């Protein structure tokens, strides 16, 4: 049930007794990951589509029993997963340089797990920092004669897809 990346698998299973485990997996192009284990004879399993290429996905179950009984895999559901989305745009980026310390601040990008900050200095140096928490970074040890030429900030998702880079206002 549902659409997009968030799904709910409502199930009713018969014959699940002691010593039987039903493991559920998501399969698709470049994707294979466990979703959970079915407990009891009925219930709901919440799942989110795995990061990766969009396209058809299959939810399969493997029944495991203590006794060596051969059971084929069971196809429970099929759906079309949305493709991985890039992070949103960063807004309000600003950069200052005082006494050899560059300070960059911004408003976080929607869907970003981390932000990449790129500083280009007048002497040709290019420095890149990854910021996982917060919306501020300080880069020390640049030297008192250093000058900022350009600073950009881009959000990046957990899957490594970057959003549009925002140019920081230098001040």
Label this structure with key terms.
0% helix; 4-stranded antiparallel β-sheet; 171 residues; 4-stranded mixed β-sheet; mainly beta
Break the fold down into its secondary structure elements and pairings.
Elements: E1 6-12, E2 20-28, E3 31-38, E4 42-48, E5 55-65, E6 74-81, E7 91-98, E8 101-107, E9 114-121, E10 126-131, E11 136-139, E12 148-156, E13 166-167, E14 169-170
Parallel strand pairs: 7-14
Antiparallel strand pairs: 1-4, 2-3, 2-5, 5-6, 7-8, 8-11, 9-10, 9-12, 12-13
Number of strands: 14
Question: How is the biggest beta sheet arranged?
Answer: 4 strands, antiparallel
Low-confidence stretches: none
Beta-strand portion reads over 45%
Which structural class do you get from the secondary structure elements?
mainly beta
Strand order of the largest sheet: 3-2-5-6
Which geometry do the CA atoms define?
elongated
**Helical residue percent?**
under 10%
Spell out the helices and strands N to C. EEEEEEEEEEEEEE
Beginning-to-end CA distance, first to last residue: 51 Å
Radius of gyration over C-alpha positions, nearest whole angstrom: 24 Å
Discrete helix count:
0
Q: What average pLDDT do the residues reach?
A: 86
